[in-house]
Design brief:
306 residues, alpha/beta, D-Maltodextrin-Binding Protein, domain 2, globular, disordered C terminus
């Protein structure tokens, strides 16, 4: 049995994104591939800027983990800083579409992406979400938002009419649903990759392939037996409620099961993703091979019980 370490992400922001790996571990899918997985917490970012979050792929390169759940923007920012020399690449995709959304008041009249240009959008404590939101609007050929600097009290500002939009990921909208006024989301749903499974280059391709296949099979197992992943996740993070985990998975699931096998990667879509991410965040463009392992472009193996 080969032992590997998987670095997770924020336990509350993207709880649902963790469940396939936990289901695969709990249901024996990793064991069937000869792998024992140790789950480790994510590396601490020194700040909430995009550059600050590069600490996570850098930690994988440094040996703190062999695999991690991470963001395309984090990895591309790290590669930009290091001239493409970071020895970490994607092995599979999680969010098959970009989950950036605008949270608006339900009575705002803002209902579709076409309504959002010119609306006041908050640049909050994770500032690159506002940049992602503006980049997504530009990507679909719409106008720019008006950016309002706002470090705190996002919900209050939205309720008072000081801003029109809170830019965030669909997965994170749960934080805003307890406001004392109704809200809704306006998804932009641009067709680029956003998150996935990264692996250190030092991990042999054969082991990465086995890990990727078990992880991808964990998606179907999570759908069939949701209690497996949830129970395993809560043993690791007992402070996160089952209600929150289930709600977060429901938000994530629609982005993971998107007319392709979960985990799948496509070269053409990867190129569009790199071009979009570089343009949106002012990063360098690199050949796809510096962002993902080209040998894993074929769809993830469908799991069949022995």
């Amino acid at each position: 049995m080969e032992r590997v370490r998987l670095m997770g992400w924020c336990r509350t922001c993207v709880s649902g994104m963790h469940l396939p790996a936990f289901a695969a571990a709990e249901g024996g899918l990793f064991a069937e591939q000869g792998i024992e997985v140790e789950f480790v917490g994510c590396a601490r970012a020194p700040d909430y800027s995009l550059q600050g979050f590069t600490a996570r792929p850098k930690a994988v390169a440094a040996g703190d983990a062999d695999f991690a759940l991470s963001s395309v923007a984090y990895l591309l920012a790290a590669q930009t800083e290091l001239g493409g020399r970071l020895p970490v690449r994607f092995a599979a995709v999680a969010h098959q579409r970009n989950p950036i959304v605008g949270i608006v008041r339900d009575d705002s009249g803002l209902e579709d992406p076409e309504d959002l240009p010119g609306a006041r959008a908050a640049r909050w404590s994770i500032p690159w979400f506002a940049q992602e939101y503006a980049g997504a609007l530009a990507h679909v050929g719409l106008g720019s938002p008006e950016i309002v600097e706002l470090s705190k009290d996002l919900d209050g500002a939205l309720g008072r009419g000081e801003i029109d939009v809170i830019p965030t990921w669909m997965d994170m909208t749960l934080y805003h649903r307890k406001a004392d006024f109704p809200i809704r989301t306006v998804p932009l749903d641009i067709e680029v990759y956003t998150t996935g499974l990264v692996a250190a280059d030092r991990v042999p391709l054969e082991l990465v392939s086995r890990f990727r296949d078990a992880w991808a099979a964990g998606y179907q197992l999570q759908v069939a037996r949701p209690e497996l992943g949830i129970a395993a996740f809560r043993r690791q993070y007992p402070d996160v409620s089952e209600e929150h985990i289930r709600a977060n998975w429901a938000l994530f699931e629609r982005y993971a099961f998107d007319l392709v096998a979960p985990g799948s990667m496509d070269a053409e879509k990867w190129q569009e993703t790199i071009d979009y991410t570089a343009a949106t965040h002012g990063l360098s463009g690199f050949p796809g091979e510096r962002l993902y392992r080209p040998e894993l472009l074929a769809p993830a193996m469908a799991y069949s019980p022995a």
